[in-house]
Design a protein that fits this description.
- The structure is a homodimer of 333-residue chains.
- Chain A is 71% helix and 1% strand.
- Chain A is an all-alpha fold.
- Chain A has a single domain (10-330), classed as Farnesyl Diphosphate Synthase (Orthogonal Bundle).
- Chain A has a two-stranded antiparallel sheet with strand order 1-2.
- Chain A is globular.
- The interface between A and B is large, with 42 and 42 residues.
């Protein structure tokens, strides 16, 4: 670890602490993304996997396993599994969303085609399944199978709930669990299970991952509207232009009068957006305190994540996970 | 079973013998394709799964398990698993191939959209994974994980090998194992494994499914060019128009002189097809005995499938599987 450790982001401290494990995970990922017969597979996978993602999910698995004292080899397999599931999901997401950019680079569906993204995604799902089967642990298989179903169900729900002003906070939470929190919570839970942690600790790891994922996603939603300061920046308004029903919008719609509701119907449901609409949307969210309320929700989930950690052993990794839960919402303060 | 049993197709005799098991499989499929939150999932799934497919793959699993004396409940889960994997693959295939029809009905990607087909396919993969995990049998998980990877790899290989005249019979066989034989052989193998069959029988069940799948696919390839009689019918020439390198074409290309090669480059690689090209392609395949050779290959694989059955117990189901291997190539005689 570097001398100016305290100044590092929690993610970087985790990466430094887990460097040896992460090197093994990366080696396993490179080995398993190869294909004897179809070179297209490693090409597409490498484009995405080596684009400098933060590897947050596999680090959660490694941290959970190490925190619970694991000394065996299978946390590496599980971390690679989680990264493969995540990568497969991104490949399919970019097809579904018709995205052109991801991590600052052209998407695979743009560089190759939708076909390659769909099929290479399927290959990575199958590979992830092989990797977890190698652990011989039926319970981690069960957890990851359930997480995979929740992820896919959340994606379909997001597709059908999109642009529907009737979307409630309850549906929003299901979508968020699907797109973010289900894999976070599975990542931490399987780390505890493979380490043979007791039930209370396994539950705490699940709760931590779940709450962290939800806090992370709500913060993301808020930042897309410029955060609570509502300062319009470079990346502001993407969700608005894509007519996504994110948490601050849902809250503002719930509080809207007839005239405001007509505005939301026009810009979200009908998608007839004009100059000044983004500013008007932000003004309405501010007026009803929707941003402050969403921020309070995010902070609440962050607190729940940190509270869950109390059931876990005192360990430098526990502090880093605590700091991470703080960090994902720190930009909202 | 009906009185005119002998006149029935082997597939129908299997369906009659396994009727009670298949009813349980269908009930489990209906239960597991539901989604509490996303009604789009059962809509899309039902469209495909209730369109009257022959359910050949789940019947192979049931037949293998029963043939080996299985009396437990999990062959039902495995049969549903196999059907879900197959259905997920079809949903993604229709997106990749931009198909408009499947089983005589509009495809899901046409009725809904590509997004729904991709995501519901992912959901069914995850569901299949949950179903097989319920068996608690690590070896069937391993077999089905490997089959899933082979299927996806074969699809990518088909994508990249498409329209490439350098495609060899070896590559063709890998593609065929991916698109057809890997799921056939996994379907029969897991039936034996769950029944606790001995290693020789498990191996025989794998060999049967593998050879049956290859025979089935080569027969399909030939029938697309009118079979060995080369009679041009209603469905003749689909593969040709889609510029697919199927076995009779690969054999004809391998035997082509310079002028013939120029023809194949034009119609397959460049896709500049004109009136009369299909007839010319068939004439070239006949000239070089490519169809007769492909037919001999199909019959050879059918014989291998039947030979593998000899290691299995004497049982009415064994005779039906034998008849099935005969039936898939009978149209070529």
């Amino acid at each position: 670890m570097s001398l100016d450790d305290a100044a590092q982001k929690p993610h970087d401290r985790l990466a430094a602490w887990l460097a040896e494990d992460m090197a093994a995970v990366n080696a396993l990922i490179r080995e398993r993304m190869s294909s004897e017969h179809a070179p297209r597979i490693p090409e597409v996978t490498a484009h995405l996997i080596e684009a400098g993602g933060k590897r947050l999910r596999p680090m959660l698995t490694l941290a959970a396993a190490r925190l619970c004292g694991y000394g065996g080899p299978f946390h590496i397999h599980l971390a690679a599994t989680v990264e493969f599931i995540h990568t497969a999901t991104l490949l399919h997401d970019d097809v579904v969303d018709e995205s052109a950019q991801r991590r600052g680079r052209p998407t695979a569906n743009l560089l190759w085609d939708n076909k390659s993204s769909v099929l290479v995604g399927d290959y990575l799902f199958a590979r992830s399944f092989q990797l977890m089967t190698a652990t011989g642990n039926m319970r981690v298989l069960d957890i990851l199978a359930n997480a995979s179903a929740t992820i896919a169900e959340g994606e379909v729900l997001q597709l059908t709930a999109a642009q529907d002003l009737a979307t409630t906070e309850e549906i929003y939470l299901k979508v968020v669990r699907g797109k973010t929190a289900a894999l976070f919570s599975a990542a931490t839970e399987v780390g505890g299970v493979i380490a043979g942690a007791d039930e209370a600790q396994v539950r705490a790891l699940f709760d931590y991952g779940d709450a962290l994922g939800i806090a992370f996603q709500i913060a993301d939603d808020l930042l897309d509207y410029g955060g609570t300061s509502a300062a319009i920046g470079k990346n502001t308004g993407d969700d608005f232009r894509e007519r996504k029903l994110t948490l601050p919008v849902i809250k503002a719609v719930a509080a809207a009068d007839a005239e405001e509701r007509a505005f939301w119907v026009r810009v979200i449901e009908k998608g007839r957006q004009e100059d000044g609409d983004l500013e008007q949307a932000i003004a309405l969210m501010q007026k009803h305190g929707a941003m402050a309320a969403a921020r309070a929700d995010a902070l609440g989930w962050s607190d729940r994540a940190r509270a869950a950690l109390r059931a876990l052993p005192d360990h430098p990794l526990r502090q880093m996970l605590d700091d991470l839960a703080d960090y994902v919402v720190a930009r909202l303060r």
